[in-house]
What does this fold into?
Amino acid sequence: MKSTTLFKIHNRIWISSENRSFLGEGRIELLNEINKHRSISKAAKSMKMSYRKAWNMVDSMNKISKKPMVIRTIGGTGGGGSKLTTEGLKAIKLFNEIKISTNKYLESKIKTLDFS
Amino acid sequence: MKSTTLFKIHNRIWISSENRSFLGEGRIELLNEINKHRSISKAAKSMKMSYRKAWNMVDSMNKISKKPMVIRTIGGTGGGGSKLTTEGLKAIKLFNEIKISTNKYLESKIKTLDFS
It folds into this structure.
């Protein structure tokens, strides 16, 4: 007789606003990369994504959140770039919190699985 | 000033066992269709899926759950077909319960979203 099977529950969440994509794994990764590189184009490159696509994602998030999540920085040694606002950092934090708590919740649910 | 934005959290769950797919939206739909049509080939057709693919999904679920989820029925007016076992019906029930409770949980989380 085989011993207990190990089940794992996987989970993907995404947030929309009035039928428009707002936040999902990809956009949160993009925000994280912009935060790291201080540049949309470098963030796009690190994700093997076109600049245009990354820019459109940022533009969409900025419009939905009203207070922008990513703003341009002008001048400085790097000649300007982009950075996350408090709103952008909050989005990453909230998304990750929801993801972690949902995963914890699902972990507790796994005990109800009994297919052995 | 724009009024409060309506956010919606979407969620997709799937269950694996030792790195093999076990249950997800597609497989649950397949089990439901087999239950409805009492036939793997009719269920596959209704999902615009090849019989081979449907059969492989059933075979994979049957092997992981140990007690089969779908069994063949022999004879009768329809000349035999397939039907769900108690185990198969339980899989649909558990998956839907987890899905519904996770959605409820996420609904409560939506209140933490404040991007207006």
Observations:
- Chain B has one domain: 20-106.
- Chain B has a mean pLDDT of 89.
- The interface with chain A takes residues 2, 5-18, 22, 64-67, 87, 90-91, 94, 97-98, 101-102, 105-106, 109, 112-113, 115-116 of chain B (CB under 8 Å).
